[in-house]
Amino acid sequence: MTTVAIADDQAMQRFGFRMLLESQDDMGLVGEAETGSAAVRLCAELQPDVVLMDVRMPGLDGIEATRRIVASGGRTRVLILTTFDLDEYAHAGLRAGASGFLVKDARPEELLAGIRAVASGDAVVAPTLTRRLLDRYAHHLPTPDTTTGTDPRLAALTGREREVLTAIGRGWTNGEIAERLVVAESTVKTHVGRILAKIGARDRVQAVIFAYDTRLVRPE
């Protein structure tokens, strides 16, 4: 059973999510929060597998709430739910440690698949959507003080691992990376796991952000 919490200041939005979750045999709603502060307290107390996090809430917003939940070291993974075309803070949410990003008007099956993916440790944002998101909000990336390649975490990567990280940042799937580098997909998965460990990333989304932050990959 995947336990889920909802953090959203709109009662009707919470109601819709609640009805969807209650229709699933493998999911259970454990709590709701109307503010970011309440979401942080709820996750600390109940440790849900996933929290559906709105970005814009009164008081403590969803970005800072995400940062605090992730920093606590608990088991809860954050799935950001917002409006892609309007919410410029989506990228900030991923940088804060969220494990995924979905628009609020996603189809019910997409939301449920996203929850299951995040709960299992995967990143719910498709590589191509991650690229689109980061390209759009590239101006929010910090201005580098040094040239590309000086980050010590990059130095810890082998040449092949750096190739794979660059491909991840460009939005390639494991299958595409395997085809273009002429290696088995299982080998790519092994490289991805080692890369995440070396750069301290929780998942593939964070690896893409790292590739952009270090300017290993640049927005188009």
Total number of helical segments?
11
Strand content: 5-15%
Compute the CA-based radius of gyration.
18 Å
- Globally, the shape reads globular
Please give the number of β-strands: 5
Mean pLDDT: 85
Strand order of the largest sheet: 2-1-3-4-5
Percent helix, as a range, is 40-55%
- Kindly name the structural category: alpha/beta
Identify low-pLDDT runs.
none
The largest sheet, given as strand count, sense and whether it forms a barrel, is: 5 strands, parallel
Give the oligomer, counting copies of the same chain as homo and different chains as hetero.
single chain
Task: List the secondary-structure elements in sequence, H or E.
Answer: EHEHEHEHEHHHHHHH
Give your account of this protein's structure.
There is one protein chain. This protein has 220 residues and is of the alpha/beta class. The chain has helices spanning 11-22, 36-46, 62-71, 90-95, 108-119, 127-136, 152-155, 159-169, 174-181, 185-199, 204-213, and strands spanning 2-7, 27-33, 50-54, 77-82, 100-103. Strand 1 (2-7), helix 1 and strand 2 form a beta-alpha-beta unit. Helix 2 packs parallel to helix 3 and helix 6 runs parallel beside helix 11. The model has no long low-confidence stretch (mean pLDDT 85).
